[in-house]
Write a structure and sequence with these properties.
alpha/beta; Rossmann fold; two-stranded antiparallel ribbon; 6 helices; globular; binds 5-O-phosphono-beta-D-ribofuranosylamine
Length: 207
C-alpha cells in the first residue's frame, strides 16, 4: 500500500512509520512526505530514508481550500492510497477530508473522544486523570473525531509533568501508528459509517 505522510515538525511518528519497513510482513511504502513547513525535522528524516519530499507552504495560498487542493494534487501524483497525518498542524477543509474519506488517518495523543485539541497532556494532569493514552482514527470534518482504529492506554504516574507524560504517550504512539497502517494495508479494517471494524469486529464502539 502506498502511503503519504503529512507533517509540520519533529516527525517522530513519521520515523516510526519509516522504521516499520524493517518489520516482517510490512507491505506499505511511504511514497511522499509532505510538509507545510520547509525546515520541519521530519523532512530531514525522509531525506535520510530516501523518501520523496514536498513542501507546500500554506502561507502562499489564498485560502485553506486552495492550499488543501494543492496538497491533494501532490498526493495523487504519487498514487498514494492512504494519507497519514503525523503532527500536521493545519486544520483541513471539509472538501479535503471528504475527498480522502476513509483513506485519511490521524494520530492524537489522548484516548478520544476525551481531550480533543491541543495542550492535551497538561489538561490531563490538571484534571487529575489517572490514565491517558493515544488514538489512531479515520478523519472526519470535526476536529479529532472519526472512527477509531486503535488506542493505547498510558498510566499517569505520581510526579509526571506534561513532558514526562508526553514522552510515555509518544512511545505508545510509535507502536500503534504503524500497527494501524499495517491493519489497513492487510485489508483488515473496514468502515461502516462512523464505526471502524477490525476483522469485522467492533473494538471501539462509537456511541
Ligand atoms: C504527536 O504527539 C501526535 O500525536 C500529535 O502531534 C505530535 C506529533 O509528533 N498529533 P511528531 O511530529 O510525530 O514527533
Amino acid at each position: 500500500m502506498k502511503i503519504a505522510v503529512l507533517i509540520s515538525g519533529r516527525g517522530s511518528n513519521l520515523q516510526a512509520l519509516i522504521d516499520a519497513r524493517r518489520d516482517p510482513g510490512w507491505t506499505s511504502e511511504i511514497v511522499l512526505v509532505l510538509s507545510n513547513v520547509a525546515d520541519a525535522q521530519g523532512i530531514e528524516r525522509a531525506e535520510k530514508a530516501s523518501i520523496a519530499t514536498c513542501v507546500i507552504d500554506h502561507r502562499e495560498y489564498a485560502d485553506r481550500e486552495i492550499f488543501d487542493a494543492a496538497m491533494t494534487e501532490a498526493i495523487e501524483a504519487t498514487g498514494a492510497e492512504l494519507v497519514c497525518l503525523a503532527g500536521f498542524m493545519r486544520l483541513l477543509s471539509t472538501p479535503f477530508i471528504d475527498h480522502w474519506r476513509d483513506r485519511l488517518i490521524n494520530i492524537h495523543p489522548s484516548k478520544l473522544p476525551d481531550y480533543k485539541g491541543l495542550n492535551v497532556h497538561q489538561r490531563v494532569l490538571d484534571a487529575g486523570e489517572t490514565m491517558t493514552g493515544c488514538t489512531v482514527h479515520f478523519v472526519r470534518p470535526e476536529m479529532d473525531t472519526g472512527p477509531i482504529i486503535l488506542q493505547a492506554t498510558v498510566l499517569v504516574q505520581a510526579g509526571d509533568d506534561a513532558d514526562t507524560l508526553a514522552a510515555r504517550v509518544l512511545e505508545q504512539e510509535h507502536l500503534i501508528y504503524p500497527e494501524a497502517v499495517r491493519l489497513i494495508a492487510d485489508g483488515r479494517v473496514t468502515v461502516d459509517g462512523e464505526q471502524a471494524l477490525i476483522d469485522g469486529n467492533v473494538l471501539y464502539p462509537n456511541d
